[in-house]
Amino acid sequence: MNATRESACAHRVRAIVACAAGALLAACASTQLDAQWADPDRPAASLRGARVLVACEAHEAVIRRICQDRVAAEIVARGATPVLAAENTAGADSSYAQAARSAGARAILTQHIAPYGSTISPGFSVGLGGFGFGSGRVGAGVGVSAPIGGGQVTTGYAANSRLTDATTGKLLWTAKASSPPSQDVQGQMMELTRAVFDSADKLGLF
Question: Is 28 a residue whose pLDDT tops 70?
Answer without folding.
Answer: no
